[in-house]
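Look over this record before class:
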Amino acid sequence: MGQSPSQPGPAGTKFRVIGAGMSRTGTKTLNEALSILLDGPVHDSGIQSLGGPPEHIQTWLEIMELAPKSRSFSDEKKMDYLFSSILEGYVATMDCPAATLTPEIMRLYPDALVLCTTRSQESWWRSMEYMNGMMGTWYLPFVVMWLRKSQAYGVWRQRFQQIMIWRYGDDRILEGTKQKHEEHLRQVVPPEKLFFYNVSEGWEPLCKILGVPVPNQPFPHNNNANDARKVFHEHVIAGLASWVFVLAAVTMVIHYASSWTSRWAV
């Protein structure tokens, strides 16, 4: 949850980068930087799978359910089809759950670079633990259940948990998950296609990786802890407001039903 979903570009837009960094490693910043450098929209899988168009939400839920169970050639082909249906028109993917499914996306886009944002373990875990504290609350799926763009969050969280267990042996993102994830990338991605990048380094190393000129504009900075907290509070407030509306509507229905029953009783 957070920020706005992007719209795909025209058919035939070249897919060039798999953003494989774990959440809270500068993925939102890289998202914006890639959209500038590659002149096209980036598919942020966290945003699209929770707040995107209904067809994207549903397709991501199907992908997340199928991935840990995929065993056969037909399963792989179905995964390829599902990915192609939501990634057409984008220049890159970003964030989780896509980052955890890097090998599966590589199968569809073998020429794409795998770009993993990273940061120091200590600063990453401090940021991730803070995010886990907000997004892992027991009440959040209940509070946002009437918000159209957040209704899938409970199912999303369950299926992401299954992906985490399948891929890393953790039932959620823990202190050691980033290290496991980056080691997994080293095992499954050809060395010549795998790049690690810290967004604090700015334009030059990123442009060198992509083989593009350095743009004449400031490097973006997006989605810090304050941004995340603001988005979380906005969703909670909107969710509580939706509950007020729903309860008011139910009360009115009960009132009118009671009045109608009383008239017939007389």
About this structure: The chain has a mean pLDDT of 84. The chain is about 55% helix and 5% strand. The first strand starts at residue 17 and ends at 19. The beta strands are 17-19, 42-44, 92-94, 113-117, 194-197.
